[in-house]
Amino acid sequence: MSEQAARPPAGASRAERAPEAMPVAETDWASEAVQAEAPDERGLAGVWVGGVAVCCASAALAGLIEVLLAPFYVGSVLVPVAVVLAIASNIALPIISRTLVDSVLAAAAPVVVWVAVVLVLSLPRPEGDVLLPGGKGGQLAVSYAMMLLGVLAGVITAAVAGRRRQAPSRR
User: Fold this and answer.
1) Does the chain have fewer CB atoms within 10 Å around its N or its C terminus?
2) Across the chain, where does the E strand assignment appear?
3) What is the CA radius of gyration of the chain?
4) Average per-residue pLDDT in the chain?
């Protein structure tokens, strides 16, 4: 047999080489390296849960900012920027949270925190002060639209994010 026939082609990968051509020590070293590079799932779980906690804190902050921006006027014109922010935050935060942790509850957590913050801030204080005005016409519409559309966007996003991650079964 010639030397050309015993050698693998120039562009051959390790998988194309004959097993007896690879030294045993090199094979053991490669398998140890693969095992060493595998991430520890328990260590990453804490990072993911921390990410969901950051999403929940962001939802609380978003709820506070949106309640404060509900009566936003430019001159004498009421601008419903709180409604847009409520929809955007309640779409983005559940998606981010669901991406971090493979659980529908992770996607629902920021929405629940947002709803709790908005509801608590909409209640009147003992002195009679309110943060979320219910005034006449426009202010009332912006306040209700922010709460309703924010919750609706969050619930739909959490439900769709929960279904999207499940792989369809093929038989």
Assistant:
1) C
2) 73-74, 77-78
3) 28
4) 79
